[in-house]
């Protein structure tokens, strides 16, 4: 996709730490409603790329545009989150002592109207949205449980639900299936594929079975730039990708 159809557009993005180039003229275009898997060896620049998109790290050079027009390099982290870019880090961070229901409600934007029946309708709308999110992440039957009592996989899904509750346009997900069982991994692939029907999603992941199950375009980073990009079969058989990453 071109700039005008992109949700995320990186062009010539470079980041150096003490002279070491973590990103080296990285260019990548992600289309509206696209899901993209990012793979690559440790130190390839995957985390730095996510940090640049979310405003945690400012690039030394290059353009980072959201929705074809918004210059993310000019914004701070809070403003970027406000635009509708949600990030999930590798470890689950949920409110352990709250119920699944309350975790989603706490994540939702806007004031929570309690008490007065005047606001009853608004609470019902919120409840409907919450139920919708729980349905999407497969936790509807667990809504009254404490987050602390969920499995590791369920906590990850809950946190993905908390991101969805903020109504993002773009979701950045960092190694979601690390530590999951095979069944949970499979369910996570289905869950993200369902979310990708209505959101753009970028997933950083090492588990190649999972990446295959996502069924999306794959970008392999190496030394801060794109080594290979395309369908999983193309990328996973690319000689350079095998050499620097898969053949480990
Ligand atoms: P990946 O996520 O693909 O493993 P990273 O983006 O974390 O790669 O790291 C890319 C390179 O940049 C690594 O060599 C790492 O050591 C270096 N790096 C990342 N962040 C910093 C930092 N804050 N200070 C110094 N070096 C860093």
UniProtKB/TrEMBL annotation:
Top-rank taxon: Bacteria
InterPro entries: ABC_AA/LPS_Transport, ABC_transporter-like_ATP-bd, ABC_transptr_urea_ATP-bd_UrtD, P-loop_NTPase
Domain ABC transporter: 8-248
A single cellular component GO annotation: plasma membrane
Keyword tags: ATP-binding, Nucleotide-binding, Transport
A Pfam match: ABC_tran
SUPFAM superfamilies xrefs: P-loop containing nucleoside triphosphate hydrolases
Name of the protein: Urea ABC transporter ATP-binding protein UrtD
Originating organism: Alsobacter soli
Encoding gene (name): urtD
